[in-house]
Design brief:
CATH superfamily: Vaccinia Virus protein VP39
Strand content: 25-35%
Number of strands: 8
Shape: globular
Number of helices: 5
Number of domains: 1
CATH class: Alpha Beta
CATH architecture: 3-Layer(aba) Sandwich
Radius of gyration: 15 Å
């Protein structure tokens, strides 16, 4: 973890898996942007960590004050890894692991009447269409309020796009071969 309650605590990953955790430096940049000038900006927030992998982004959000994180992951090995990482940090509440395909999981969370303050999506880079499907769904979903920030981590050379209906990119940051695109309703 980069900062917050669980800072300097390592997370487990599985070598050889198709899980590519968000690099520490990129994750630090993400959270610095979201909390710029206001360290308490994430307090009480609701997150959806879509394609959660190791759970690093969602756990970082919890570490920095998020009230609820939905970890969405379809791979059983990754779900086990998220559980292990949460357990090793003794995080017992403030989260739900939704073991399902991304769009089905979003429908499940939406059906609960939840709305997110932040949605982070980071599908395997080779799954370029996953960005479009998720962003198109989120644009129409009740999960995304006017103030919700949707962040897509992607390869710098594989840009997901500028807009999806009223969901419009307002910022793009590049670090090495990775990039973060920030969207909200325009």
């Amino acid at each position: 973890m980069i900062a917050g309650q669980y800072r300097s605590r390592p997370l487990r990953s599985s070598p050889g898996m198709e899980i590519r955790p968000t690099a520490d430096r990129l994750r630090e940049t993400l959270f610095n942007v979201l909390t710029a000038g206001n360290p308490a900006a994430l307090d009480g927030s609701v997150w959806i960590d879509l394609y959660a992998g190791t759970g690093a982004v969602g756990i970082e959000a919890l570490s920095r004050g998020a009230a609820q994180v939905y970890f969405v992951e379809s791979a059983p090995v990754a779900v086990k890894l998220i559980r292990e990482n949460l357990g090793s940090l003794q995080i017992a509440e403030g989260f739900e692991i939704v073991h399902n395909d991304a769009l089905q999981a979003l429908r499940q969370v939406e059906a609960k009447g939840s709305a997110a303050d932040f949605v982070f999506l980071d599908p395997p880079y080779r799954m370029e269409q996953a960005y479009h499907h998720a962003l198109e769904f989120l644009e129409k979903s009740a999960l995304v309020k006017q103030t919700t920030v949707v962040i897509a981590e992607h390869e710098k050379r594989a840009d997901p796009g500028e807009e999806f209906g009223s969901l419009t990119r307002y910022r793009k940051l590049t670090q090495g071969e990775a990039a973060l695109s920030f969207y909200r309703h325009g």
